[in-house]
Automatic annotation (TrEMBL):
It comes from Dioscorea cayennensis subsp. rotundata (White Guinea yam). Belongs to the peptidase S10 family. This is Serine carboxypeptidase-like 18. GO terms for biological process: proteolysis; secondary metabolic process. One of its GO terms (molecular function) is serine-type carboxypeptidase activity. The gene is LOC120261017.
Length: 252
């Protein structure tokens, strides 16, 4: 599972410590936030906390939350438009892909996947219905009608890993939608002992990220320089890590 949404409170509260670690807010702003919000930065009604949150938002406005080092490109993620959804589930950035910088630096999320999944041969390979039946492929298709009603999936992970199922939880370390620090926090809430602590893992002799090995077959890893969707940013390292894990490696 990569940069997965598991606990809405942990992940939304984790954005501010992550922003501080990334140098997006100053020590003073972070200290004001921690003292006024008491660690609860999400749905906090305290006047001082709200005032400091406005300062925080002003400092990160225009930052690409999917990858804090990348330009704010034009695309949408329309998972859910209901008010009780994750506040980061609907994202629209302002830099159009046809602008001076867009064509060089922006990933064309929809057009490349759309070209692939709307091909007749692709649909036949995947046993998908023809385009005349389903319509064109759309990322996070709004035609899928559902309501998100589970905002804490930690008990499910506890249940499955306690039964011995292997789990590989990984994160791009530059993603602020689901920060790696928040993922580590909910993993630590499982209270599993650490077999191998934080240490680098390598691809082609270079550090590709860091990993922690826990009891109950749980492996956590970061991917250095990756954003919200790891294979999109570091496809080679992602493939190598997956191959190692699927082959039974306890650590990378």
């Amino acid at each position: 599972m990569g940069n997965a949404a598991i606990d809405i409170n942990i992940e939304n509260n984790g954005k501010i410590p992550f922003a501080h670690r990334m140098g997006l807010i100053s020590d003073e702003i972070y200290e004001d936030l921690t003292s006024s919000c008491k660690g609860n930065y999400w749905r906090n009604s305290d006047p001082d906390c709200l005032k400091n949150l406005e300062v925080f938002q002003a400092n990160i406005q225009g930052i690409n939350k999917e990858h804090v080092l990348c330009l704010p490109c034009q695309f949408e993620l329309g998972f859910c438009l209901k008010p009780n959804c994750y506040d980061s589930d609907y994202i629209e950035y302002s830099l159009h892909q046809n602008s001076e910088h867009g064509s060089k630096h922006c990933h064309v999320y929809n057009t490349r996947q759309k070209s692939l999944f709307d091909m007749e041969t692709t649909r036949q390979t995947l046993h998908a219905v023809p385009i005349e039946v389903s319509g064109e492929w759309i990322r996070c298709n709004p035609r899928l009608q559902y309501e998100r009603d589970h905002f804490n999936l930690i008990p499910y992970h506890l249940n499955l890993t306690m039964k011995g199922y292997r789990a590989f939880i990984y994160c791009g370390d530059h993603d602020m939608v689901i920060p790696y620090t928040a993922t580590l926090e909910w993993i630590q809430s499982l209270n599993y002992s650490v077999i191998e602590g934080w240490q680098p893992w390598f691809v082609d002799g270079l550090i590709a990220g860091y990993n922690i090995r826990y009891y109950h077959n749980l492996l956590f890893a970061t991917f250095k320089g990756a954003g919200h969707t790891v294979p999109e940013y570091v496809p080679h390292q992602a493939l190598i890590a997956y191959q190692r894990w699927i082959d039974g490696a306890g650590s990378l």
